[in-house]
Design brief:
Structural class: alpha+beta
Number of strands: 5
Order of helices and strands: EEHEHEHHEH
Strand content: 5-15%
Helix content: 25-40%
Shape: elongated
Length: 128
Amino acid sequence: MTPVLPDGPQLDEAAGRLVRPYTVSDGRTRATSHFTLVTTVRATGAQTQGAFGLEHAQVLALCEQPVSVAEVAARMQVPAAVVKVVLSDLAEGGAVVAGDTRPAPTGDSARPDRDLLEAVRDGLLKRL
């Protein structure tokens, strides 16, 4: 049975966030995997190895479709550094993968479209 997760962070209007960011990452401030704000992550669908908390489950749910680290942080309303630590935990457990998740183009589709490149060039030259 899949647990029902609350949407977004647990907030109280008067007190603010009920779980402080440093508790989400167990006080850790550095990720063990390299993530940038624009790194794309997605869930693998594999059974996670290790015991994870509610925030790990929320991040994993956000990663069902490829999403950037910045987008996960924004949706979770926690600092990106905290999300990077949580994603590192999930990556080490085999639950998420990072990087471009699209298959590499082959053949003619691997080459950039000349008309598009010329249109971009022309547009940039007009701005100068």
